[in-house]
């Protein structure tokens, strides 16, 4: 925050470039029948769609979060573990830059969860998106 309380983007221009990685997770709790049918929903395969949505969202994080720096992402991956009553989502974002990729990983996990929700909401009114969190972040000098 500036002297008068205004918001501002942090200047990272003097920071050294480093290799950065962040992992975020989310889950979508649902009925067992929904979890079992998650790849065969009326709209199609929810996991394929959610993976693509999460990757696309990570790439657009700076457009969604007002003070985030646009980053040159070197890798984004979104993975799923289908349980009996939930889909666990893990999103990984990597960059070589002057600031971290936590927001990109969190946005990827969240949008992937919301996509699963959207695709399954017609057959399951009990779903809950929960536990969105940063799991890990690393920074390695170049």
What do these coordinates show?
The protein is of the alpha+beta class and 142 residues long. The protein has a single domain, classed as 2-Layer Sandwich (Alpha-Beta Plaits), CATH 3.30.70.640. The chain is 30% helix and 34% strand. It is built from four helices and four strands. A four-stranded antiparallel beta sheet has the order 2-3-1-4. A hairpin with a 3-residue loop joins strand 2 and strand 3. The chain is elongated, with a radius of gyration of 17 Å. 33% of the residues are buried. The model has no long low-confidence stretch (mean pLDDT 96).
Task: Name a few traits of the molecule.
142 residues, alpha+beta, four-stranded antiparallel sheet
> Helices and strands: which structural class?
alpha+beta
Largest sheet: 4 strands, antiparallel
Second CATH tier, the architecture:
2-Layer Sandwich
Distance between the termini: 30 Å
Q: What characteristic shape results from the CA principal axes?
A: elongated
Q: What is the CATH C level class, in words?
A: Alpha Beta
Uncertain stretches of 5 or more adjacent residues: none
| Element order: H for helix, E for strand | EHHHEEHE
Q: Return Rg in Å.
A: 17 Å
CATH homologous superfamily caption: Molybdopterin cofactor biosynthesis C (MoaC) domain
Report strand order across the widest sheet: 2-3-1-4
Q: How many domains make up the coordinates?
A: 1
Question: How large is the share of residues in beta strands?
Answer: 25-35%
What is the name of the CATH topology? Alpha-Beta Plaits
Question: Residue-averaged pLDDT, rounded?
Answer: 96
Helix share bin: 25-40%
What is the tally of beta strands? 4
Number of helices: 4
């Amino acid at each position: 925050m500036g002297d008068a309380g205004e918001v501002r983007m942090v200047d990272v221009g003097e920071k050294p470039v480093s290799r950065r990685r962040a992992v975020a997770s989310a889950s979508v709790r649902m009925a067992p029948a929904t979890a079992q049918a998650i790849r065969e929903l009326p709209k199609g395969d929810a996991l394929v769609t959610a993976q693509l949505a999460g990757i696309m969202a990570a790439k657009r994080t700076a457009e969604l979060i007002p003070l985030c720096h646009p980053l040159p992402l070197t890798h984004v991956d979104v993975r799923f573990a289908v349980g009996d009553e939930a889909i666990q989502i893990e999103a990984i974002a990597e960059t070589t830059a002057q600031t971290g990729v936590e927001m990109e990983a969190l946005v990827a996990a969240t949008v992937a969860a919301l996509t699963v929700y959207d695709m399954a909401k017609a057959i399951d009114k009990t779903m809950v998106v929960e536990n969105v969190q940063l799991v890990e972040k690393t920074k390695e000098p170049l």
